[in-house]
Design a protein that fits this description.
mainly alpha, 2 helices, G8P
Length: 74
């Protein structure tokens, strides 16, 4: 069993070496930074309206729960 593993790994050694060599030599040109500043600014600008809508929804839910609670009490 051990001989089979050693034989199989020896046959793949040039492939592994070639991959490691190409990984070390190739410059990461494709990995340039992505400019997300426009997206961040749009999200910051939308934070206030989203918070207002969320607050209104929570207020309505609380009012409905209070109405149901008072209605059950009497």
């Amino acid at each position: 069993m051990f001989k089979r593993i050693v034989t199989a790994s020896k046959s793949k050694l040039p492939i592994v070496f070639g991959v490691m060599l190409s990984y070390a030599v190739v410059s990461p040109v494709f990995a340039a930074d992505i400019d997300i500043s426009a997206v961040v600014e749009a999200l910051k600008a939308a934070a206030t309206p989203i918070a207002s809508i969320g607050g209104a929804v929570l207020l309505i839910a609380a009012l409905l729960a209070t109405y149901k609670w008072v209605r059950r009490a009497f």
